[in-house]
Amino acid sequence: MLAGRALFRTADGEGLANQGDVVVVGAGTAHAFRAVGPEPLRMMCIHASPRIEQDFLDDDAAAEAGVTF
């Protein structure tokens, strides 16, 4: 986390991340995040694979995975 504060959510639960924190989400794990608080959220995402593979879940799939806000 470069700046701001974020709420992260997976099917296992949720947590808050602040500036300086590192959040690790395993490959293939459905997750969501959103900024919380008055400061803009800035974060750096690092993917171990040589190319980013990303799927955006529609509302029904996100609800089924337990990652809706």
From TrEMBL:
The lineage of its organism: Bacteria, Bacillati, Actinomycetota, Actinomycetes, Pseudonocardiales. It comes from Amycolatopsis bullii. This is Cupin type-2 domain-containing protein. Residues 2-46 form the Cupin type-2 domain.
